[in-house]
Every structure is written in structure tokens, then in C-alpha cells.
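Q: Please design a sequence for this.
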């Protein structure tokens, strides 16, 4: 699965604060992820917090992207590892149970249920 984020200076604030909702769907497929974006974008930061979840390219140059694609094409074990890790992390972050627990936690104010 391919997720491209903007390198344009005018988009920096959006790249920093907006988390791409498609990562929810992408991780739950169990397929390897290729994320291209600047080091400050939320998707790249998320991959740094979750090592092994994606192949990441943090520069806009064509050679870096080609090298990443080649790594994915040439190594089936690596693709399987990325897909398995994406599925594991996706279930942890984005499952119905996690969403429900987060929502219920938000309804609790200083130990008092609303």
C-alpha cells in the first residue's frame, strides 16, 4: 500500500497535524506499507514510533523512492514482515475495541463517569 505525503513548504502545517485516516484501512489489510513524506509529517512520525511497520522514504528525490521500491520488490520476507507488523500495529491502534475504550475513557472526567 502506498501513502504519499506532501513535501511542499505550504503544506507543512497540515502534514504535521493531520493524520492520514487511510492508514487505518491500509494497516488492517496486512499488506506492506510504503510511506513517502518529510520527516516531520504525522505518518512518518507514526512509523518512527512503531518500528518495522513500513518502508519509509523521507526525501522527495526519485533515487530514494526507487531504492525503497527495489527493497520491497526484491525481498519477499521483508514484505511479509512489514505486512505482519502493519497488521499488528493497526489492530492495536485502530481496532473497534481500542476505539471504544478511548471513547469511554474520554467520557470519564477525573475519575467520575458522565
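A: Design:
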Amino acid at each position: 500500500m502506498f501513502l504519499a505525503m506532501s513535501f511542499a513548504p505550504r503544506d507543512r502545517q497540515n502534514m504535521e497535524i493531520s493524520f492520514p485516516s487511510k492508514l487505518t484501512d491500509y494497516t488492517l489489510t496486512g499488506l506492506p506499507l510504503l510511506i513517502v513524506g518529510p520527516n516531520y509529517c504525522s505518518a512518518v512520525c507514526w512509523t518512527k514510533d512503531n518500528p518495522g511497520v513500513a518502508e519509509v522514504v523521507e526525501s522527495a528525490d526519485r533515487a530514494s523512492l526507487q531504492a525503497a521500491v527495489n527493497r520491497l520488490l526484491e525481498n519477499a520476507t521483508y514484505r511479509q514482515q512489514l505486512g505482519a507488523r502493519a497488521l499488528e500495529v493497526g489492530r492495536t491502534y485502530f481496532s473497534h475495541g481500542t476505539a471504544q475504550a478511548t471513547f469511554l475513557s474520554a467520557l470519564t472526567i477525573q475519575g467520575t463517569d458522565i
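Q: Thanks. Anything notable?
A: The chain has one domain: 2-113. The beta strands are 2-4, 34-36, 55-57, 108-109, 112-113.
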